[in-house]
Amino acid sequence: MKAYADFIELVKEYYDVSSVEMLLDWDQETYMPPEGVKDRSLQLATLSKVAHEMLTSDRMASLIKELGTAAVHDALTTEQQANVRRAEWEYHRAAAIPSSFVKEMAKKKSEAFHQWTKSRAKSDFASFAPYLFKLVEMKKQEAEYIGYEDRPYDALLDGYERGLKVSKLEPLFSELANGLSSMVGRIRDSGTEPDTSFITCGYPIEDQKKFCRRLTDFISFNYERGRMDEAPHPFTAGTLHDTRITVRYYPEDPRPAFFSALHEGGHALYEQGFIEEHYGTPMGQAVSLGIHESQSRLVENIIGRSLPFWKHWYPALADTFPKQLEGRSVEEWYAAVNDVRPSLIRVESDEVTYNLHIIIRFELEDAIFSGKLDPKDAPQAWDEHMEKYLGVKVPDSANGILQDIHWSQAYFGYFPTYTLGNLYSAQFYDTMKKDMPDMDQQLERGEFAPTLQWLRDNIHKKGGMYEAEELVEEVTGEPPSHEPFMAYLENKFGGLYGI
Ligand code: ZN
Questions:
Q1: What predicted TM-score, i.e. pTM, was given to this entire model?
Q2: 289-323 pLDDT, tens per residue?
Q3: Which pairing describes strands 236-239 and 226-230: parallel, antiparallel, or unpaired?
Q4: Which residues in the chain show pLDDT less than 50?
Q5: I want to staple 294 with a disulfide (CB 3.0 to 4.6 A). Which of 127, 343, 402, 425 is the partner?
Q6: For residue 407, how many C-alpha atoms fall within 13 Å in the half-sphere facing its CB?
Q7: Which residues are close to ligand 1, an ion, with C-beta < 5 A?
Q8: Annotated catalytic residue within 142, 264, 300, 469
Q9: Known catalytic residue: 363?
Q10: CA–centroid distance, residue 417 to ligand 1 (Å)
Q11: Quick check: 174 and 450 in contact, CB under 8 A?
Q12: Helices (H) and strands (E) in the chain, counts
């Protein structure tokens, strides 16, 4: 069909420009010289304007309209319909916003990001505040442009996880928060504390790098179609044939490197697992950030922090780091990489406390966008929530409200997708275990291929065919829920802490 062919051509051109933006971002975070930022912020602002104009062009509008008419729509295959549906959603969100606003937002984000790095270094919220206020004001305006039924914040959530609303998250998160807080208390009261002294005693970075390469080879990250580099805040960027992952290394402790390699590796398996013929179209892209995160957390935590995984890998680890691990058993290593400890920093937190950090961000963002919290009072609100949920006293804003990059990038509504990813990962894992009852034995024998095949068949190859909730139901037979995740934690940490 001519209209569909023309539509796909435009969609693919838009994808080319967006993926170049992503590549420039990757370069900015890895190899770009510091002064390069002056040119790069201009390049990125122009590219975001160009991408926005491509997506909202009159030609795109008329093709989407034509493909949406009943007779034409019915003649499309299910996959073609999925492409039209997702492009239409993206089109409507973008078309609601004036191009000048998009460029202004890119400029303000760039300024806010630079101020944030300085303010965080000095732990000085006041110097970042005016930039944050401006971004909040603009995002409120953006929500008005896009429109919403209940709350302005819903319009922002929808940008990361289509159809997500506060009214869906609130019951899910409040039950989760109760369950997690109670588990944190029981772990604390158990008096059990794993020995982590041997894991923080110095691990040469060159050896950490080699081991990360082995771990990523094991999960079948394809280095012919990807790279692994170093970045202060690890992330994955890229396309089907060029997927870039980044890892960070600390000389004293190898955990951040190993688990960021597995985490980003999990994201990359998803990107590398899309079907070639759908390249550049929504069918060849992730469903949502939450589903993307489910793939990374499954590999990082459910598999990568499991005893079967380390029963296979521990001998090689002990060979690589004989001095550090002398006289230590795989069980001690397993306990140390699953140490539960309420702490200040989200990205360093364990599987039990992690989602409490996210729930705090969600509550603050929701309050800010519904006008209940003045952003100037956000640091105090953050500190109070940390004390309430985690019993942690926040010493300064660098270790509190300013720790995460997201607000400086105007990524309001992004945080909840991390927790959704964790919940989805546990639901997928339950189904996986039913389909492959000997999954633990396979991992212990060092076989990852069946696990990867399951992910390919059930998640990766489906690309953007479904929305997140639909995919979860399609794969697991159940709607998104916090229960499988809590059951997974109870089972794992019940064993580790005797609770
Ligand atoms: Zn991630």
A1: 0.96
A2: 999 999 999 999 999 999 999 999 999 999 999 99
A3: unpaired
A4: none
A5: 425
A6: 29
A7: 293, 296
A8: 264
A9: no
A10: 10
A11: no
A12: 21, 3
